[in-house]
Design brief:
The protein is α+β, with helices and mostly antiparallel strands and 70 residues long. The chain is built from one helix and three strands, in the order βββα.
């Protein structure tokens, strides 16, 4: 899905992110899904859309340290 298909949603990025264009942004959609995009595309690139269950699994993996680099 392209970000332009998600017109009107509120995109957010981490308060810890710096303005160096290397961040991801998320938007919580009205139907419970979550969209994610790369901030360096200035809102014109693709967006990944996850179900609420997929997003919960991702959050759980982050909390559990599943994505830490060795």
């Amino acid at each position: 899905m392209t970000s332009s298909d998600l017109t009107g949603v509120v995109w957010r990025k981490s308060s810890r992110s710096q303005n160096n264009g290397q961040c991801v942004e998320v938007a919580f959609l009205h139907d419970g899904r979550v969209a994610m995009r790369d901030s360096k595309d200035n809102g014109n690139g693709p967006a990944l859309v996850f179900t609420s269950g997929e997003w919960a699994a991702f959050e759980g993996g982050v909390v559990d340290g599943e994505f830490k680099r060795p």
